[in-house]
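Re: that backbone. Tokens:
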């Protein structure tokens, strides 16, 4: 069994998109779609920036720094929100190696 998002998403965690997750970018929004679970999510501009940092190389801390630079804020001001967004990605089943929240698992799984 894989860990849940709230157990692993910390500053040193490296979020990796799930193999079956695709993203479509539309101006200041994006749609994530998991072709396996058929689960989707609409992302606003901030969440889209956070998702684009989930490339399998950047740590949560590095993603925080990127978001902070983009919005001209101190990194400490965005840490909690960035971690929460990445946890939601994991809970929704969009990250490799993180168990989705039980309510996100399709009944026929």
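Recovered sequence:
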């Amino acid at each position: 069994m894989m860990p849940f998002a709230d157990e692993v998403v910390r500053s040193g965690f490296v979020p990796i998109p799930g193999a079956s997750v695709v993203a479509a970018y539309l101006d200041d929004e994006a749609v994530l779609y998991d072709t396996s679970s058929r689960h989707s999510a609409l992302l606003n501009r901030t969440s889209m920036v956070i998702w684009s940092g989930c490339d399998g190389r950047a740590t949560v801390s590095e993603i925080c720094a990127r978001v902070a630079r983009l919005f001209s804020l101190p990194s400490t001001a965005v840490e909690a929100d960035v971690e929460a967004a990445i946890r939601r990605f994991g809970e929704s089943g969009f990250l490799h190696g993180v168990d989705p929240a039980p309510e996100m698992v399709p009944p026929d799984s």
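The mean pLDDT is 89. The radius of gyration is 13 Å.
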